[in-house]
Amino acid sequence: MRKNKKLKIVAVVGPTASGKSTLAVELAKQFNGVIISADSRQVYRGMDIGTAKISKDEMEGISHYMLDVADPDDDFNVSLYQKSVMNLLEAIKNKNRKTNRPVLPFIVGGTGLYVSAIVDGLKFSEVKPNLKLRADLNKKPLTQLAIKLKKLDPNTTTDLKNKRRVIRAIEILKAGSKPSGPEATKDQWPAKTEPKFEVLKIGVGKDRNISKKRIENRIWNMDIPKLIKETKALIKRKYDFSSPALSALGYNDVKDFINDKITEPELIYRLIKLHTQYAKRQMTWFKKDRSIHWVKDASSAKKLIAKWLE
């Protein structure tokens, strides 16, 4: 392999419960691959059932990275994720130079921003967290924060329904910088750099009706007792359930069930609703990317990769 040749990577993307993990393992087995998770919740330890994290048995011997790399109260973010994965890919590239059987990295996940941070080389703001400002802003209602942000940046494209992102956008603007990540204005986002890799993007789970059925099946077949045990362990460690790590995917609802605020059928209904809404947001992101090749099965994905590698 020539020293200046770009590393080839495959991104396998799609909404929750679309079968990305299973497909990626099958592809990695055929193409001598390793899997790098691109999931903003699966990076956290102790959150296995609620995030549908792949098990050791399901990995089938394929190396997986970026799982369980932080505690739920760590200030982990996309910038840290990007740095870690870039270092890992650089190591793979260096190793590939010395072998006749190169490793093919698969970036697999449903967090569009995490995927894009790698394959599109997004540039993020260097503004450090202002914990005092965050604490003050967090006390205010989201509606008030949204108004404040729009005054600071009338052209903001920040998700005004996401309190964490609104606070981060205000934090960056207050520091005298313009956001260059998910909080950026239209003329700055996405802030892409020169591609460092040759990328093939494969998408699964585009059919909304099938996706909804898969989500319902996943929740109904979820090991609720284990999920409750997992949530109790998180409560015991006194993690903040309003934090970015725990504020999504139903841990607060499980906590309500533990505290006898809702029944088990209500918990199931809430989880299905949450995951369905999450899948919808994921697909809104991915549908904007016209470079994604949507496939219906593993056979189609294998043919696509084989042809691309040629």
From TrEMBL:
Its cofactor is Mg(2+). It catalyses: adenosine(37) in tRNA + dimethylallyl diphosphate = N(6)-dimethylallyladenosine(37) in tRNA + diphosphate. Substrate binds at T16, A17, S18, G19, K20, S21. It comes from the Bacteria. Gene3D superfamilies: 1.10.20.140, P-loop containing nucleotide triphosphate hydrolases. Its EC number is 2.5.1.75. GO terms for biological process: tRNA modification. Keywords: ATP-binding, Magnesium, Nucleotide-binding, Transferase, tRNA processing. ATP binds at G14, P15, T16, A17, S18, G19, K20, S21. The record marks T111, R134 as: Interaction with substrate tRNA. Residues 39-42 are annotated as: Interaction with substrate tRNA. SUPFAM superfamilies: P-loop containing nucleoside triphosphate hydrolases (SSF52540). CDD domains: NK. HAMAP family: IPP_trans. Catalyzes the transfer of a dimethylallyl group onto the adenine at position 37 in tRNAs that read codons beginning with uridine, leading to the formation of N6-(dimethylallyl)adenosine (i(6)A). NCBIfam families: miaA (TIGR00174). Belongs to the IPP transferase family. Monomer. This is tRNA dimethylallyltransferase. The gene is miaA.
